[in-house]
Amino acid sequence: MKKNKILVIIVVAIILALGAAVKFVYDATDYQNVLVTNPDNEIKPNPKESEADEKEPVQPIEPEDEDSYIENLNITSSSSVINLLILGIDTSQDRTIGIYRSDVIVLARMDLENNNVKVLSIPRDTYAYLPVRNQKDKIGHAYAFGSREGRGPEASAEAIEEFIGDIKVDYYFAIKMDPVPGIVDDIGGVKIDIDANMYDPDNGVEIKKGIQMINGDQALLYLQWRNTPGGDIDRILRVQNFFSSLYGQLRENNQMLEAARIVLKYRDGTETNMTSKHMIALATYFNQLPEGAVSYYTISGRSRMIDGRSLWIPDDNTEIIKEFLSGHVQASSDSGNP
To answer: What are the pLDDT digits (tens) for 33-60?
Structure first.
């Protein structure tokens, strides 16, 4: 009799756990409610999630932890536009300022009502005002100087808000480049059109020009390659091409939610104020976007040497920023060649 009672308790526990899992995923896929934040609030630091969520981020949260998720969602219907700052952090050992800087700076503007996304790339050497230093410097250094205060992504967000103007960064997602090979391999590789032959003799990684499926190590080489005439601007175009190709592949193979789960496996290599629930909501939103809903933009400028430093002096980007902030979507974009 006692054994039967224990068996019943175990079965009930399993049913409750499965129910929690279904509810968690179902709630998270309601991206309209999950992603929208209060525009009057300042960016919050990375929310503290439960120990269980850190170890198994895609598993159902425990009932006693659910309130912490609801609290972090900060749901409101006052805005349907979400701004997500994505930072690729350079962890190479040749940095001399002591703390890593952001190598890739991308601002994604998601209009939930009009169902479109605009992606703005900002060159890392863009000469701009950094609130964290109260002076002008390379915008990629905002992360480094902010990290000295334990707030690298927040300092980057402040610099981006100052540079763009009339915008608030709702979420940030900073990822070190180290986990990129593992993420790409777990996805199964990315099919992409490579624009030049690339070779890394230190790691024995090579990519030939042309359309092909690249693995994780090749993806990292592709994203960091600058040995073409356009230097960092060419690299920015490659980052856009990579994002576009990856997005198209994930949507075609119905892998969007699986990709979110894979990224969450590498939580140790990321800094974000997004919860697992936000990530699932984000994947759901991108999965349902119509063809041609993603547009790409890049801050234009010119390279100049000032006091021995190479800086990207931005042009008058008023029209580009105006287009980026507007509800209008330019002719498409989400092909392999943005």
So the answer is: 656 655 444 555 554 443 434 444 333 3
